[in-house]
Amino acid sequence: MANIGIVIPAAGQGKRMRAGCNKQFLVLMGQPILAHTIRVFEESNFVSEIVIVGAEGDISVIKELVYHQGFQKVAAVCKGGVLRQDSVRAGVRALSPAIQRIVVHDGARPLLTLQAFNQFLEETQEYPAAIMGVSIKDTVKRVNLAGNVLETLPREDLRSVQTPQVFDRGILEVAHYQAVSAGYYGTDDASLLEWMGYPVQMVEGMQENIKVTTPEDLWLAERILAMRES
Question: How many domains does the chain have?
Fold first, then answer.
């Protein structure tokens, strides 16, 4: 299960954070959010390479972060595209040919633990495509544009999808190629395979593995890390 490559899309500017900069550089418990995210993969014995994909104006900042944190597995920091899907595709191309199993993980999802990540890899090693998700606690209703409730969706059939997501390289590359050819954009990499009609396995994630998108998320992430340290 070794020789796994990690692609971390970190090119989003995070307008909902209202921070005036890339949210992944915001400080969380004394370290940039992106540093927390990278460290899990740096410490995993299953990971051989890490590629970070950033906005053009952030490349030098990311390289400096990698240098000062002493991350040894970061093989490349490359320029992202207009949308997340474009950035992931660039990151996959930047991995060495020896990497045949790829994990995609959001740069702004810094609370994944090493134990949870390694367990995820073990549980999904037989699947060509697998994702992490958690059960939904709230009742979910489908509404129209006017806000009228159309139906209540069965909660037991729904999951809130997270990263990491893991794929055999060949399958992921084909999915991205076909999506580009058709002009199709999905909300995550798994949705590209679903669009192709390819099966994707869901495994249980962790509720704490939140994506830091708003100031409230940053506050919650700080509380979670503080609890772990105590």
Answer: 1
